[in-house]
Structure of Threonine dehydratase:
Amino acid sequence: MTDHKAEHTPTEHTHGAGCGHEAVQHGDHVDYKHDGHLHAEHGDHYDEHQPQAEHTVADHQHGEDCGHEAVQHEDHVDYVHDGHRHAEHDGHYDEH
């Protein structure tokens, strides 16, 4: 999955406790919801991250014969689930 740089840098706005944006746990780090995007600090910039799916890998395992359409997406496969595209990422699914 490719992340893109966010439209602002940590020097322009610092995400963290009290910044006014909702914190969302995403694997081993915290993302911040900012203007409909999820931002994760990465060195001197923020990466745009994909929101997590409403179900976990433990709830439902996507793969061959899971009943959901597989769609090639760059270097991985997404699965169409209830109108969303899910891609496995570090023990959870991202919405693509």
